[in-house]
Amino acid sequence: MLLNLSDDDFDEMELVEGALVLNEAIDPDTKVTWAKEELARLVDEAKHTLIAHTDGPSRLDAFLHLFYKQWGFKGDQEAYYDANNAFMDKVLESRKGVPVSLGALLLYFGAELDFPFEAVNFPTQFLIKVVWPEESVHYINPFSGEEVSQHTLQAWLVGHKGPLSQLKPDHLKTADHATIIGRWLALLKNALLREERYTLALRCTDLALVFVPDDPYEIRDRGFIYQQLDCHQVAVSDYQYFIDQCPDDPAAELLKTQVNALSHDHVTVH
User: Fold this and answer.
1) Where does the Protein SirB1 N-terminal domain start and stop, copy by copy (predicted)?
2) Would you say 76 and 91 are in contact if contact means Cβ atoms under 8 Å apart?
3) Model-level pTM?
4) Following DSSP, what letter does each residue of 11-26 receive, concatenated?
5) 3-state DSSP assignment of residue 52
6) Strands (E), 25-80
7) How far is it, in rounded angstroms, from Cα 163 to Cα 138?
8) Angle between the 198-211 and 15-26 helix axes, to the nearest 10 degrees?
């Protein structure tokens, strides 16, 4: 299904809907119909709860209280890298997620409830930008629901990129859905690799290569996955492609050793 979608298709969807398409393409057991029904149920509940709130900012405060306190959505601090935090049906079930999955939910409710939310693909994590007319822009950390100051964003950037880093407007620009889906896909692939769920991780890499064909780093990762699945001949081919395309990358020397070792191994055909 996902293979027939372009970047423009993703931008025309709500981010949650794009994520569900992504999730189902990776794991066909994703409960897409249930997730959509649960989202519709929560929207109805939110509209009923917020009916007495007419002022925009106070209505937003009431919604954030509903989302984080009453519904109980929260960042998963105990198992941040669990793949379930990137599958939308699992997030809706457990009420736990990571910034991008919780942020996608906030964007969905924002569109349904007329909140001026925009997505920000900040270097350290996903953010929600709140743009009220004639007011200064605010940023929400989807992991906690708390407002994030410019000072905190600068501190995050320094921690991520070093002491000379400076917060720039480009760091806080509104991101399109295709860019966010790409980040989501990388997060999901890495989580599945940690959990040694290599068949699902391979689907992530294959999907990524639909959007960035011939990307040497994706092909290198695919080679690693094929190696874990004992498909050594394909792994050697992918590793060799990376070595040829990125000869100066430090990983290239390590992969040359892998190629030599695997070339002498018995080839398993799947």
Assistant:
1) 35-185
2) no
3) 0.89
4) HHS-HHHHHHHHHHHH
5) coil
6) 74-75
7) 24
8) 130
Tokens of 224: 């690693």
Element (H, E) at 182: helix 177-194
* C-alpha dist (Å) from residue 49 to 10, 42, 112, 203: 30, 10, 14, 40
- Size (the chain), residues: 270
pLDDT, tens digit (0-9, with 9 covering 90-100), for 108-145: 999 999 999 999 999 999 999 999 888 889 999 999 99
Q: Tell me: the pLDDT tens digits for 8-54? A: 677 777 889 989 999 999 999 999 999 999 999 999 999 999 999 88
How far is the C-alpha of 3 from the C-alpha of 1, rounded, in Å?
5
Burial (CB < 10 A; 0-12, 13-18, 19+), residue 58, is exposed
Could you tell me if residue 230 is left (phi over 0), alpha (psi between -120 and 50 degrees) or otherwise beta? Answer: left
Structure tokens at 121: 């693909």
Complete domains list, the chain, with CATH: 2-172 (3.10.620), 214-263 (no CATH)
